[in-house]
Amino acid sequence: MSDAASYRKVDLHTHSIRSDGKLTPTELVDLAVEQQVSLFALTDHDSVAGLPEARQRAKEQGLSFINGVELSTQWHGIPLHMVALNFDEENQALQSVVTQNQKIRLERARRIADLLVKQGLPDLYDEAFALAGDSQLGRPHFARLLVEKGLVKDANKAFDRYLGNKRLGKLRDVWPELEEVLNQLSGQGMELILAHPKRYPLTVTKLRRLLADFARWGGTGIEVVSGNEKPDHVRLLEKLSTQFSLKASAGSDYHGPFGPWMQVGKYTQIHASEVDLVWQDW
Q1: pLDDT at position 98, please?
Q2: Above 60 in pLDDT, residue 278?
Q3: pTM, whole model, 2 decimals?
Q4: Mean of the per-residue pLDDT values for the chain?
Q5: Per-domain residue ranges for the chain?
Q6: Torsion region of 74: left, alpha or beta (phi above 0 gives left; psi -120 to 50 gives alpha)
Q7: How many CB atoms lie within 10 A of CB 94?
Q8: Is the pLDDT of residue 104 over 80?
Q9: What CATH number should be reported for the domain whose range is 3-90+190-274?
Q10: Dihedral-angle region of residue 169 (phi above 0 means left; psi in -120 to 50 means alpha; beta otherwise)
Q11: Residue 248 neighbours by CB under 8 Å, 6+ apart
């Protein structure tokens, strides 16, 4: 099988309205089919709520579907994301991590609301919670309320004036430690993939340290590509996946139609024959 045939129809990193995406799970699966994807995973942030709907639609569409979730963690105070793939939805260890992270997300939103009050704004928590609905409560919901109330011109101004890290702090101390999460999930029969490694504020030396820890603690793979990444970054991650004996995963990290560079099944080309593909046995 050629490199192109090996990976171009695979997307193992996408988001629906069940976290911070713009499409329903059904709409997302339909888009994957339209884009001729044949192996697809829904990986909402700290949520598996959209999996039943996506799985049912994938079955109707004849699309091979993989259970997924993107989990929030931290390593030496740096927020990281880890994608868990191909798990039993009833896995108790995974459910425990997801439940804890959902609780943390609500507590984090409460902190955001309190920090906005300190900046002279009204307490927007309850309104933001209602606005979020089935999606995950976060800063975008507070930004939307600020716009609707005429307190700022647009969402960008909301972040610049009230919601940016300089105003709120980086809120880095809330997520569970990477080692703790890996200890809970390793050995449970699922793939544990470090998401988009080149997006973190790490030198190559520190990235190598992270990958060494990740592999030692039970991680099984890394995303060698996530969306429209620089080709030299993809080449580096391919080499690192081999060096640390980590499987290679790939996905678009699709959240919605924000530009022609974002599409389900679309990401920078990889050298599929040079890495150990996480999906080759599926």
Answers
A1: 97
A2: yes
A3: 0.91
A4: 93
A5: 3-90+190-274
A6: beta
A7: 22
A8: yes
A9: 3.20.20.140
A10: left
A11: 221, 222, 223, 224, 237, 238, 241, 270, 272, 275, 276, 277, 278
| Cα–Cα nearest to 265, from 75, 29, 20, 92 | 29
If pLDDT is split at 50, 70 and 90, which confidence band does 170 have? low
pLDDT at 4: 47
What is the C-alpha radius of gyration for the chain, rounded to an integer number of angstroms? 19
